[in-house]
Amino acid sequence: MSGQRGGELGPFVPTQWSLVHRAGQPDVEARKVSLGLLLQRYLPALRAHLRAQKKFDHEQVEDLLQAFVAEKVVEQNLIAQADRQRGKFRSFLLVALNRFVIDQVRRTGAGKRSMETAPVGENAGEELVSREIQPSNQFDIVWARELVAEALGRMRCECETSGQMEVWVIFECRVVKPAFDGIEPMPYEVLIERFGLQSPIQAFNLLTTAKRKFARILRSVAGEYAGDPQLIDQEIDDLKSILSMAGA
Amino acid sequence: MQEPSPRSDNPLALSSLLELREDTRHVWRPEELGAIWKHQLTAPMPLALGDSLSAEVMHELEMLELSRKNLKNLDELLHGAQPAIGLLNLVKRFAKQCWSDRDGPLPREIAALLYYASIAVADLRLGKRISELRSDELIQGLRWSGTPTWVDEQTRQLLKEALTRMGQGAGDESKSVMPLAPD
Description:
The complex is a heterodimer of chains A (248) and B (183). By secondary structure, chain A is mostly helical.
């Protein structure tokens, strides 16, 4: 579970760019751990991008991603080339993957089974480039979903470890499940009975605590992805704009 | 327990979580408002009126105990035969705070109903006007308060009686809209 990743790391959760920095270092062990974490965060979005935007099938996507990780990320130490001054890490990764895919398609040509449905031949690269021009909605949406899932996972862990499970449960039953699973929120009468609440104000206080906690954790996770506390609002605005465009 | 993973791909669902802010009032379904109102009426008085007025509420309750009156909750205050004017004033102040404050701990509809109910009781049972609202504003508020389907019959009757005492009939309640919180 994504939240348990944060839990296993203990109180220190590395920021995105500190992960990137460590993943680009020569220290093999530190590099391995940081790379693993980075890939865990971004592979779902890269996978969605290849499937939805580039129209590769499941096997092709897995082959390409394995090759990308092995050849570009590990062998050529791609992460060491990432530079926070030059933009967002997720944009850097996406551009690198797109270039790798174009090279790969040109290199393997028509003979390779895993590229059967992808564009091949002389113009294969150009065709993929033209697909690349389109905004990668799926990448962004999956990235946003991973970020929110990370925040939710951490919130649950934090509630567990601080003995505030009622805060998590009320949030899950009133907010999370209705939003994501389309089920009805836990009815008020059930809620007050389950938590032994004596007044509506107590119910409000529990919900407020839950929302405050989630908002704080979401900002913290967004900060890790942004790599700079000053960019948190921009990162959250990015998320909102990605999702509102996708939902429009 | 299931993992807290947003399984839905619906971007609007994700977006709704991003919009969450601590000062955003929770949205209750209309059918839940009846349960909240009932809970508010039966909650022990100090818990029903929150922390900000707790010292004044406790003082009023102590004064009542001295005069051998005992009001355990808002139901007894609003629907009992012997309401206490001090407590009605505090209820009105609390309701007004909740109604106009973005962070108010009660749904706006509940706060507004509590506000008008306290004024109606003071007028009907004690013959005292505890509101500075103009008569037309008060009438509009009392009319609206009896409109929602989740309002219990006893409270609805109370509001109707208050309107009758002010020389007003039920009016066209279907056109009744929730008034703005008073200044």
